[in-house]
Amino acid sequence: xxxxxxxxxxxxxxxxxxxxxxxxxxxxxxxxxxxxxxxxxxxxxxxxxxxxxxxxxxxxxxxxxxxxxxxxxxxxxxxxxxxxxxxxxxxxxxxxxxxxxxxxxxxxxxxxxxxxxxxxxxxxxxxxxxxxxxxxxxxxxxxxxxxxxxxxxxxxxxxxxxxxxxxxxxxxxxxxxxxxxxxxxxxxxxxxxxxxxxxxxxxxxxxxxxxxxxxxxxxxxxxxxxxxxxxxxxxxxxxxxxxxxxxxxxxxxxxxxxxxxxxxxxxxxxxxxxxxxxxxxxxxxxxxxxxxxxxxxxxxxxxxxxxxxxxxxxxxxxxxxxxxxxxxxxxxxxxx
Length: 336
What we know:
Layout: E1 16-19, E2 22-25, H1 29-35, H2 48-55, H3 58-75, H4 83-90, H5 94-105, H6 109-127, H7 132-138, H8 144-155, H9 159-170, E3 181-187, E4 190-198, H10 206-214, E5 224-232, E6 245-254, E7 265-269, E8 272-279, H11 285-299, E9 309-317, E10 322-331
Antiparallel strand pairs: 1-2, 3-8, 4-6, 4-7, 5-6, 5-9, 8-10, 9-10
Helix pairs in contact: 3-5, 4-5
């Protein structure tokens, strides 16, 4: 699991064609001659059972299986899992896994696994004080030499040089803005129903993406408290834009025990020591993260842990407008 910091550099806005729970990068010039330059894919209203029938097509079944494969590899990246283990987990042959995974992600599962390990290592180097050897071991490498060789082959520089250059490159790229509130606390264990999106998009569009993926299923969770939530796993300054992962869904409390749709999975998030920031508007999220990273952490002798950032989106109404705020839960490193 890794920490996402979306805000630090302007990144390429890759347009994506959004399918249920999935996004495939598309070269839009293929379509513009036929449908124009304003192609937008939006969810239809009141789909109900007809939507679920369409959702359970062979393509969607394969898509959900490969999403499950990606999540399995992601969650076990520190253990260097084999493709044979993945095939056994899903009940497919290795050949089927390799063929379908490459079809949906454009990369073999073995290369994907290795890329995830190295990108996690890069993030730990940039966001934590961990020694290079400790980073290597936590990402499943058996020795400093093996890790350094793999890292250099992937990023073109040594781990130590990457750490230094990354910090220098990002330090002055985003203006800093203190959040409305900032506290350090122990976050209790949380339970979420989540579906995964692939593809980097600007922060300002994340509430719209939440509506696309999750809003239609909110009525299925009656009888329990539901909070609108998404989780950032990657830093798009490290992870390629088409592979950036964001989980959208619900944080739930109460008797809701079953995910609302096939594309959702239940995730239990363990208790963690964290910084919680409250930000009034979405355009201030980037500045709040920059403030945390470059002003608050150094003056409070704290470090980020490299684990995912959880965002809770809240709205309230006034006499004149609808007000929004965001709670950002950023895990801290616990030093024993």
